[in-house]
Amino acid sequence: MGRRPDNYHELSTVFQTVTLHDELSFILSDDEKLNLTSNAHDVPLDESNLILRAARLLCERFRVRKGAKIHLTKRIPAGGGLGGGSSNAAVTLLALALLWDIELEREDFVELGKRIGADVPFFFTGGTALGTGLGTEITALEDVRVDHLLVVTPCVRVSTAEAYKSLNARALTLTESAAILSVSRATAQFHDSLPEALHNDFEPVVFGLEPEIARAKESLMKRGALAALLSGSGSSVFGIFENAEAKLLAQESLKNEPGWQIFSCATLAREEYLMALGECAGPLIELRP
């Protein structure tokens, strides 16, 4: 990690799609209105939602004179560091391009995604991938397969901006403008050493800001996880378990923790991810690691 000329941090991060997901439906409107509804009461339905920001960006960029009714079935906890908002934005771009007959290539979607958020471009790749730069430069990696995951999201929120601000600048950033971390495709293939390779520089900072998140990680380890790690800048942590029985025992033990959301899931390979996207994944199907 290093400091960029634009004062943002240079990143190296591994992204992974998992089976935990939201659902989006899109219906073409006769007018030019964009209408967003959701099953979740805590989801904003105005322009602060990345779904509407993505839809509006597509309208303005291509002068679309059509509308859409969009419904979000929310499962991924908001503010949990799991990429729910970013994945919804990416799917919105793909789905509305299809619905509105806008012909785009994968590179076009990536550039649009960068304008919405740093995590959005990854969702035009899926599977296991390396993110560098601001996290927007995506390199597809060989898929990692983990069948027994638990995700724990405590009832706390972590500001990504605050987490970055609290990082030890001398430890993680050079005074020079050039980035100090170079990760090759070969060295990024970490799956053979999983779970020993898991590391997140945000953990000391985030655990200091919100001790409840540290307790969630400790709880996973005490209940038999082979490894556990903070997801992004939090507030979710995930644990890797040896088998379904071990995962189930841990899940049952954790479900009585007040305010914690517990999700059982597995990694989702790139081809599985693209199949799940359906017809709107057309511009992405040629992608291979």
Notes on the structure:
By secondary structure, this protein is of the alpha+beta class. Helices cover 31% and strands 18% of the residues. It has helices spanning 50-62, 84-99, 106-116, 160-166, 169-172, 203-209, 211-222, 244-254, 270-277; strands at residues 11-16, 23-29, 34-38, 67-73, 128-133, 137-140, 149-153, 227-230, 237-240, 261-265. A four-stranded antiparallel β-sheet has the order 8-9-7-10, covered by helices on one side. A hairpin with a 6-residue loop joins β8 and β9 (237-240). The longest helix has 16 residues, at 84-99. The radius of gyration is 19 Å and the shape is globular.
The main pleated sheet reads as: 4 strands, antiparallel
- Count all strands and give the number: 10
Mean pLDDT: 88
Instruction: Spell the H/E element sequence.
Output: EEEHEHHEEEHHHHEEHEH
Runs with pLDDT <50, length 5+?
A: 169-190
- CATH structural class of the largest domain: Alpha Beta
Query: What is the fold named in CATH at topology level of the largest domain?
Result: Alpha-Beta Plaits
How many domain modules? 2
So how many helices? 9
Q: Can you tell me the overall shape?
A: globular
What is the correct CATH architecture of the largest domain? 2-Layer Sandwich
**What is the terminal separation in angstroms?**
24 Å
Class inferred from helices and paired strands: alpha+beta
Percent helix range: 25-40%
Adjacency order of strands in the biggest sheet? 8-9-7-10
> How large is the share of residues in beta strands?
15-25%
CATH superfamily of the largest domain: GHMP kinase, C-terminal domain
- The Cα radius of gyration reads 19 Å
